[in-house]
């Protein structure tokens, strides 16, 4: 059973729209403003060596019904993922993180677009199988079995998706241990609500978890919460300043 989402989908798909295979992607561009001139406030300290970033189920950039909301949701989620990757690369000394995208409904145009950004599109379940403790997982509003597959090898370095609190509130028939890694993150990781998209529901019921560094454990709780709030503000500012035409 999936958490509440804007629309229901077939069991073998993760997003809200069905593409036409012969339809070409619209000429859409995401206009991202120039980088800030001042330094970004520090993101929460994460005890990990980042080796890969995995983006799961963001949807198609060319919805069959031409829905502007569905198209915008996909672009906003893509931008949020790339902003996070950029911040992790800065923390890792500028070393580029390989990014893998897994989306069953990607069209040929979608795949070409992602490739043009320098990233790889892989077929399911290849991206999930790449996840380990040094991976960023970004997967918003996915079905429970997809999260279970992505987390089967244990908690990653960073996880963005439906939080344990949401799954814990609903009655589920699935194996109770399929999200054991998510429960571990709920109990031991840093956690914050993901910044919301003011114009839509792209990140409703979404949380971000990160493995705490040893240095962060010694930080007073109030200071830790302040750092988390600053990091949220930075990402929210970037999302709010994005225009999609």
Automatic annotation (TrEMBL):
* Chain spans, region Disordered: 1-20
Pfam families (UniProt xref):
SRR1
Which residues constitute the signal peptide according to the record? none
Q: Which domain of life does the UniProt lineage start with?
A: Eukaryota
Stretches assigned to the SRR1-like domain:
49-210
Q: PANTHER family from the entry?
A: SRR1 DOMAIN-CONTAINING PROTEIN, SRR1-LIKE DOMAIN-CONTAINING PROTEIN
Would you tell me the protein name for this molecule?
SRR1-like domain-containing protein
Record the organism.
Tolypocladium ophioglossoides (strain CBS 100239) (Snaketongue truffleclub)
């Amino acid at each position: 059973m999936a958490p509440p989402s804007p629309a229901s989908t077939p069991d073998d798909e993760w997003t809200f729209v069905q593409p036409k295979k012969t339809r070409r992607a619209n000429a859409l561009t995401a206009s991202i403003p120039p980088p800030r001139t001042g330094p970004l406030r520090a993101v929460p300290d994460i005890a990990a060596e980042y080796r890969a970033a995995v983006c799961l189920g963001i949807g198609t950039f060319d919805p069959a019904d031409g829905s502007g909301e569905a198209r915008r949701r996909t672009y906003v989620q893509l931008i949020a993922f790339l902003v996070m990757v950029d911040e992790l690369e800065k923390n890792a000394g500028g070393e580029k993180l390989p990014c893998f995208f897994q989306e069953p409904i990607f069209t040929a145009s979608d795949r070409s677009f992602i490739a043009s950004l320098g990233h790889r599109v892989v077929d399911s379940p290849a991206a999930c199988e790449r996840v380990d403790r040094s991976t960023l997982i970004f997967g918003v509003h996915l079905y429970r079995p997809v999260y279970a597959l992505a987390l089967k090898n244990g908690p990653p370095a960073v996880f963005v998706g439906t939080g344990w609190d949401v799954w814990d509130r609903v009655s589920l028939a699935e194996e109770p241990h399929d999200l054991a890694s998510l429960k571990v993150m709920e109990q031991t990781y840093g956690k914050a609500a993901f910044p919301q998209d003011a114009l839509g529901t792209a990140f409703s019921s979404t949380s971000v978890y990160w493995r705490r560094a040893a240095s962060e454990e010694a930080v007073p709780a109030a200071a830790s919460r302040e750092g988390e709030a600053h990091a949220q503000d930075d990402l929210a500012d970037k999302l709010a300043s994005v225009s999609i035409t």
